[in-house]
Write a structure and sequence with these properties.
The complex is a heterodimer of chains A (328) and B (306). Chain A is an all-alpha fold and 328 residues long. Chain A is 78% helix and 0% strand. Chain B has a single domain, classed as Orthogonal Bundle (MetI-like fold). The chains are: A mainly alpha (328), B mainly alpha (306).
Chain lengths: 328, 306
């Protein structure tokens, strides 16, 4: 098991290295001088533009040779320093990301975990109950095919505009300041619910369908037939089927992360939720490539860490990886 | 998708043309028998064909253009404008049918590109194993963690307008990892079977073994993966268009949502503006997914009973 983990860790480090290198190259791959394009958008007068050009070129170290820029990027990265932002003048990229991340995580983590648990449960139940199979499953197909931003729009239109149950945008009421009070917590939860529900519903559909199909596959396997022929109770057979079906679902969790993160980005935009998504759209609109670079770095690191957690959980759940019988 | 057709193969085989073809024909009619009895497949395929028809014929039913402005500003659906008009006065129906067409084009191209890469990577990694497997595994991981948006922003900076094809190719190039992993696992288990060893002993070339011995044995699996890649690409394209990263001169369902949101269709309560494009995307993708499970049941006899 140690060898298995060491191997996994080495692959992750290598992946991280390659991904960071590509991320570093993004602003430098842009046509022309990245700083010039940014300043042109700010419509500053020529002397100010000259000074800003100098300031940004220096602060990004763009006048240095490429290999040194690359080393500096890694050094900055290890110190948590990603340079200044251009869209938000006066703020540093790492500060902006640090402020936005808690909001995005507050949406993503509960949505991923709860939809995974609930989807697997409902999917497993659907595989054995015809009624549920005929109701929950068609709904799941529609949910998993729904674009996140559109579901967000529909929920906002129905629940926020027409029925006025939930607030439309922001993370908390404008009259409040973030604080550990009941009033703030209530306002935060009210604003949090709709974007959370959007992410939850779309992911839920996918897990339910996956689990239902996997359970049906497993119940056709030899071990299930053998158990049944021995006269084992149905519940026991299903329990074993569920345990086996959970494994591919866990690998699926790692693969689905990218899509959920993308979903969170567009959902935040619809609800004006002050997380990474809103930051991304501002960065895109202002061509703030260095802010985008920071955001992608955060996403890359986040997805890698989540993948690693899934891998470790897999080792715990699947004893075969521990005894080295099976590599993947 | 070479050598998928069992009938074509037995015809090529030469000496056993007559009985081989007959058996293949019987097998095929059996597949069709189960295909038409499978409710999921019939519903999914029917809906998909209907949407394809709307995408093909719909634009011909109107002489309006998707980007053209008309006199009616922000009108709800009427006999004049079937799905209403946008706040600046564009016809929602015209935009919708053109957008549907764009979705099919992007999905088909991106699906093909992704399937081709996934097969190349999956076959190579699964068949050769060892070092090749490790390198391709890392490549797969890297593509998996790099957000598609990142690649598109760079490319969008070079192509000022962008085109449907370039968007589709980019989606294809970044969306193959899960399929490659699945194909790798399948190839891995097939590569150790006797008939593959026999082919190797008889001196057949590596790619010939992969294409003639391994691929046909998982052809249904490959087809299912392609359908999922097709649907997934449509969803990714919708997200990119919504973020304003798609082509700006081609009307797409995602671009409709983008314009609706940036013109506060939500605040103006103009539901007809944003309802249609979302229903279009959801319907295509759901039809593909339902069809996928239906086909799975047709190809896999074990699943038919339930």
């Amino acid at each position: 098991m140690k060898r298995y983990l060491a191997r996994k860790l080495a692959i992750y480090l290598l992946t991280f290295f390659v991904a960071v290198t590509i991320d570093w190259a993004i602003p430098r791959l842009m046509p022309g001088d990245p700083v010039n394009g940014l300043i042109a958008r700010l419509n500053a007068d020529p002397t100010a533009a000259q000074e800003m050009h100098g300031y940004f070129t220096e602060s990004f170290g763009l006048d240095e040779p490429l290999w040194k820029q690359y080393l500096n990027f890694w050094l900055g990265l290890l110190h948590g320093d990603l340079g200044p932002s251009i869209a938000y003048v006066g703020s540093s990229v790492s500060d902006l990301i640090r402020e936005a991340v808690p909001y995005t995580l507050a949406l993503l983590v509960p949505a991923i975990v709860l939809s995974y648990v609930a989807g697997n449960r409902v999917g497993a139940l659907a595989a054995r109950r015809k009624v549920l199979d005929n109701t929950a499953l068609p709904i799941s197909y529609v949910l998993t095919a729904t674009p996140y931003m559109w579901l967000a729009l529909v929920l906002a239109y129905v629940l926020a505009f027409r029925l006025e149950i939930f607030p439309v945008s922001g993370a908390y009421d404008f009259s409040l300041q973030p604080a550990w009070t009941w009033e703030f917590a209530r306002s935060f939860l009210e604003h949090w619910f709709l974007p959370f529900l959007t992410l939850f519903l779309v992911s839920f559909g996918g897990w339910a369908i996956g689990m239902r199909n996997l359970i049906i596959y497993e119940l056709e396997a030899d071990y299930a037939n053998y158990l049944q022929s021995l006269g084992a109770p149905d519940r026991l057979v299903r329990k074993y089927a569920y345990r086996n079906a959970v494994l591919p679902q866990m690998s699926g969790l790692a693969l689905a992360l990218g899509a959920v993160v993308g979903g969170a980005l567009v959902t935040e935009i619809i609800f004006g939720y002050p997380g990474i998504g809103t930051l991304t759209i501002t960065a895109i609109q202002n061509r703030d490539y260095f802010l985008l670079q920071g955001i992608f770095l955060f996403i890359i690191v986040g997805v890698l860490i989540a993948n690693f957690i899934v891998d470790i959980a897999y080792v715990i759940v699947d004893p075969r990886t521990r005894t080295g019988l099976q590599g993947s | 998708m070479a050598a998928v057709d069992p009938q074509a193969e037995s015809v090529v085989a030469g000496t056993v043309v007559a009985p081989g073809a007959e058996a293949a024909l019987r097998r095929r009619s059996e597949t069709f028998h189960f295909a038409f009895r499978n409710k999921k497949l019939v519903v999914g395929l029917g809906l998909l064909m209907f949407l394809l028809l709307v995408a093909l014929v719909g634009p011909m039913l109107t002489d309006r253009e998707p980007f053209e402005f008309y006199d009616a500003l922000g009108q709800p659906p009427s006999s004049e404008h079937w799905l209403g008009t946008t706040a600046p006065g564009q016809d929602v129906y015209t935009q919708f049918v053109h957008g549907l067409r764009a979705s099919f084009i992007v999905g088909a191209i991106a699906g093909c590109v992704a399937a081709a890469i996934a097969m190349a990577v999956g076959f190579a990694a699964g068949y050769f194993g060892g070092f090749v497997d490790d390198v391709l595994g890392i490549l797969t991981n890297v593509v998996l963690v790099i957000p598609t948006i990142a690649v598109l922003i760079v490319v969008a900076a070079y192509l000022t307008v962008g085109s449907l094809v370039s968007e589709a190719v980019l989606i294809g190039v970044t969306s193959w990892p899960w399929a490659a992993r699945a194909i790798r696992a399948q190839t891995f288990s097939l590569a150790t079977r006797e008939f593959v060893s026999l082919a190797r002993l008889s001196g057949q070339g590596t790619w010939r073994i992969i294409l003639r011995e391994i691929a046909p044995n998982m052809s249904s699996y490959l087809f299912l993966a392609f359908i999922l890649l097709f649907g997934g690409s449509i969803l990714i394209a919708a997200t990119l268009d919504f973020l304003g990263l798609g082509p700006s001169n081609v009307m797409s369902l995602g671009l409709m949502l983008n314009v609706a949101v940036s013109n506060s269709a939500l605040q103006l309560e103009m539901w007809w503006w944003f309802l249609a494009p979302g229903i279009g995307i959801t319907a295509i993708v759901a039809a593909l997914y339902v069809m996928n499970v239906g086909l799975d049941e047709v190809f896999n006899p074990k699943l038919r009973k339930t």
